[in-house]
Design goal:
Layout lengths: L3 H16 L6 H15 L6 H19 L2 E2 L2 E5 L2
Antiparallel strand pairs: 1-2
Helix pairs in contact: 1-2, 1-3
Length: 78
């Protein structure tokens, strides 16, 4: 059965990620692209998709707060 509340939350998170997609790392962008195409079709999705998107958005916030370069994660921006 389709969980409309979960799907709505995932679609909102996809929109947030879309706005910040330039800040995603390569593997995050790949996952984002897969989820975006998955949810553009009439698919039920899963609760894990929501968690994955939340983690990606949290990671963006962390990288920004410590001025971390997404291309060189061990090097801080000056």
């Amino acid at each position: 059965m389709l969980d409309l509340a979960n799907r709505a939350q995932v679609l909102e998170l996809l929109e947030e990620c879309e706005l910040q997609k330039n800040d995603l790392t390569a593997n995050e962008f790949e996952m984002f692209s897969q989820l975006k195409s998955k949810y553009s079709a009439a698919d039920e999705g899963s609760f894990d998709d929501k968690i994955c998107l939340e983690v990606m958005l949290r990671n963006i916030g962390i990288r920004k707060s410590v001025n971390m370069n997404k291309m060189k994660p061990l090097e801080l921006l000056k």
